[in-house]
């Protein structure tokens, strides 16, 4: 599982199936919204791995995307229900209902420069998400092009393993279209863990509570940064968590050197919960903040509030 350790920057050890995808941001102006764990820089090519292509985006008609949620209330047995995400494992009735809920989740916003639409990643979209994450991680770690291909293999293995844990975790993808355009393109992605069954087996430090919702592995395509896309990936994650999880406290990681992402999280209501000891530098990792926010209870998803003014991220 590539991204069980948050997408932030816990990439300083070994690559294991429980890693989360969190790129390191070596420069303040590179906003790969780290929420922490996949750790490719932690000697990934010397680690035993258990067990990129170019992205083509078809033309989509412009839709009036709205936020929609639905849950199945039927008591049909799990043997007659269909798994919309093909997780490849036996699912209980409750899990199938949650998967149907995830399948119907949609978040949309009009931005200053275009329109954005967020939903859960489907199996056939995994390769383009792998390409996006690999490119982002490779850029942040300044890897040669040849290593990005190897990194893509690790990222795909991680995403594949994470899918088997749905509906306890989900990868969201955001699409963006310029005003007056009918073409949607992949703009960014983020991972959400809802409970302990979806939690990372080896989370980054400071360690978040296992049973609490956790946001990680957020990244935005380089040409589309500074348009508010990262902000709305965060808002979509919070809205989904508010509908899928009982615990109201949400956690994420942010490296201390990442000033712009930190400001975005603070603007969204996240506060520092814990900070890495300076001794973490001895393990060749950047110091990180564990940040926390308590979500309000929503009777109506459309009433989701918070700052409506997105920062240019």
Tell me what you see in this structure.
The protein is α+β, with helices and mostly antiparallel strands and 313 residues long. The chain is 23% helix and 18% strand. The chain contains 5 helices and 8 strands; from the N terminus they run H-E-E-H-H-E-E-E-H-E-H-E-E. It has helices at 93-104, 126-141, 145-163, 229-244, 259-267; strands at residues 107-110, 114-120, 169-178, 185-193, 214-220, 249-255, 271-275, 288-294. The protein has an 8-stranded mixed β-sheet, sandwiched between helices. A hairpin with a 3-residue loop joins strand 1 (107-110) and strand 2. Helix 2 crosses helix 3. The longest helix is centred in the middle third of the chain and has 19 residues, at 145-163. The radius of gyration is 18 Å and the shape is globular. The two termini are 27 Å apart. The relative contact order is 0.19. Residues 1-34, 39-80 and 301-308 have low confidence and may be disordered.
Chain-wise SSE layout:
Elements: H1 93-104, E1 107-110, E2 114-120, H2 126-141, H3 145-163, E3 169-178, E4 185-193, E5 214-220, H4 229-244, E6 249-255, H5 259-267, E7 271-275, E8 288-294
Parallel strand pairs: 5-6
Antiparallel strand pairs: 1-2, 2-3, 3-4, 4-5, 6-8, 7-8
Shape: globular
Helix count from the secondary structure assignment: 5
Order of helical and strand elements: HEEHHEEEHEHEE
**Could you tell me the mean pLDDT?**
77
Separation of the first and last Cα atoms: 27 Å
Low-confidence stretches: 1-34, 39-80, 301-308
Summing up helix and strand content along with how strands pair, one would put the structural category as alpha+beta
Strand content: 15-25%
Helix content: 10-25%
> What is the rounded Rg?
18 Å
């Amino acid at each position: 599982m590539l991204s069980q350790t948050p997408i932030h920057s816990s990439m300083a050890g070994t690559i294991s199936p429980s890693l989360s995808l969190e790129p390191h941001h070596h420069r303040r102006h590179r906003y790969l919204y780290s929420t922490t764990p996949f750790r490719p820089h932690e000697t990934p090519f010397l680690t035993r791995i258990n067990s990129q292509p170019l992205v083509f985006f078809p033309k989509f008609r412009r839709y009036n995307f709205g936020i929609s949620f639905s849950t199945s209330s039927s008591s049909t047995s799990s043997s007659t229900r269909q798994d919309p995400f093909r997780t490849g494992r036996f699912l209980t009735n409750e899990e199938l209902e949650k998967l149907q809920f995830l399948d119907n989740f949609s978040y949309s916003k009009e931005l200053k420069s275009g329109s954005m639409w967020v939903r859960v990643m489907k199996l056939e979209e995994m390769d383009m998400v792998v390409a996006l994450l690999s490119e982002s991680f490779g850029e942040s770690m300044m890897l040669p092009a040849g290593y990005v291909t190897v990194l893509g293999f690790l990222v795909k293995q991680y995403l594949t393993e994470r899918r088997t844990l749905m509906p306890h975790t989900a990868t969201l993808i955001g699409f963006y279209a310029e005003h007056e355009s009918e073409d949607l393109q992949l703009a960014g992605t983020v991972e959400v863990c809802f409970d302990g069954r979806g939690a990372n087996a080896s989370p980054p430090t400071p360690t978040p509570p296992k049973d609490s919702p956790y946001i990680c592995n957020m990244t935005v395509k380089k040409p589309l940064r500074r348009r508010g896309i990262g902000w709305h990936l965060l808002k979509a994650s919070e809205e989904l968590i508010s509908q899928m999880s009982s615990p109201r406290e949400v956690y994420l990681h942010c490296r201390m050197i990442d000033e712009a992402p930190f400001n975005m999280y603070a603007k969204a209501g996240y506060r520092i919960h814990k900070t890495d000891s300076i001794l973490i530098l001895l393990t060749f990792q950047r110091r990180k903040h564990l940040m926390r926010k308590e979500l309000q209870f929503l009777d109506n998803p459309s009433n989701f509030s918070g700052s409506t003014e997105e920062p240019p991220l």
